[in-house]
Write a structure and sequence with these properties.
This protein has 273 residues and is mainly alpha-helical. Helix content is 79%, strand content 0%.
């Protein structure tokens, strides 16, 4: 007589509450509370300094921000900077990902290109910016090229390490099941590269917008960096902080709403159930 197996007997044991992963519903309030603490610290330091020319308080900076927004100057220059950041980010991620995966998969090619990658990785951003302006001119092409070159080497290094960690057993499995190259890339290589892509994207966004500001500071006639340079020469600290914080706010929103969710999703498949 065959023994019957009930659903209760085959069901996996319940995971204790202490071992369950924490819910992410509290991330928003914690994030806002942290920003509020930062603003409170800024306000306290401004009161202690008592010199608006050195450190204006948040209401003063907010008033400047509002006036510049209503005049249309801040949105115009903010969009100019965001355009440069977006173009350089896409170019650096695309070129760096392709080269990085190729170097990680081909040892000979990696040895040939290693010196090149090291040179560009350690070349100061200011040097590349100045050289691009000298060689190409004070134009948009030179600005985008300088930023892209600075970031591409970082993407190459990150994706090269990701390609080196490919699991050979998964590769053998795809061959045994007769996967096409597209299926192999979509279902095996891309999930394995996803955490490294997320890391490169997050670090890249943080680096690129800083380099873009330097590019605009040195040789452009619009953008947040250009406005910061102008107000710096006039010793208008509140204006400098208003333009800088406007762009920081946009980058915080992009990181919190886009980059971090992608990073968590990219790493989720590696976590044990």
């Amino acid at each position: 007589m065959q023994q019957r197996v009930t659903v209760a007997e085959t069901a996996p044991p319940a995971v204790p509450a202490a071992l369950r992963p924490p819910r992410r519903s509290g991330r928003g309030p914690i994030f806002l509370a942290s920003l509020a603490a930062l603003v409170a610290l800024w306000w306290g330091l401004a009161i202690l300094k008592a010199d608006p020319q050195v450190l204006p308080d948040p209401p003063s900076v907010l008033a400047v921000f509002w006036d510049e927004t209503l005049s249309g100057r801040l949105p115009h220059h903010l969009l100019a900077t965001l355009r440069r950041v977006a173009i350089a980010f896409v170019l650096a991620m695309a070129i760096g990902s392709v080269i990085g995966v190729a170097l990680g998969r081909n040892r000979t090619l990696d040895m040939i290109a290693d010196a090149w990658v090291t040179v560009f990785l350690n070349l100061p951003a200011l040097v590349l910016i100045v050289l691009c302006y000298l060689w190409i001119g004070l134009n948009e092409t030179a600005a985008i090229l300088a930023v892209t070159l600075n970031k591409t080497a970082m993407v190459i290094v990150t994706l090269r390490e990701g390609a080196r960690t490919f699991d050979p057993t998964l590769r053998d499995m795809t061959r045994a099941f007769g996967f096409s190259r597209w299926k192999r890339f979509r279902h095996v290589m891309l999930p394995e590269l996803a955490p490294f892509l997320a890391t490169a994207a997050r670090n890249g966004l943080a680096v690129i917008w800083k380099i873009v500001l330097v590019v605009e500071f040195l040789g452009r006639s619009d953008g947040i960096g250009f406005r910061i340079h102008m107000h710096f020469q006039l010793f208008q600290t509140a204006h400098v902080m208003a333009y800088a914080l406007a762009f920081v706010a946009v980058m915080l929103a992009v990181d919190y709403l886009a980059i971090q969710p992608f990073e968590r999703r990219a790493r989720a498949w590696r976590k044990s159930p």
